[in-house]
Amino acid sequence: MSTAAENIKHTDDGKPDVVPERRDLHFLPPEDRIHDWHKLGAHMTQFMNALSLFFPAGERMFIDAVRDYREEIPDPDLKKAATAFIGQEAIHSREHKEYNELMARQGLPAEQLDAFVWSFLDFIKKRTPRSFPLSATIALEHFTALMGNSILDNPDAIVGSQEDYTRMWQWHALEEIEHKSVAFDVYDRCVGRGPIAYAERAVGMVAATTIFWPLVAYFYYRMTQASEACRKEGWRGHLRVFNTLFGRPGVLRRQLPEWASYFRYGFHPWQQNNSHHLKMIDALVEETEGAYATKH
Question: Is residue 266 packed enough to be buried (19+ CB in 10 Å), middle (13-18) or exposed (0-12)?
Answer without folding.
Answer: exposed
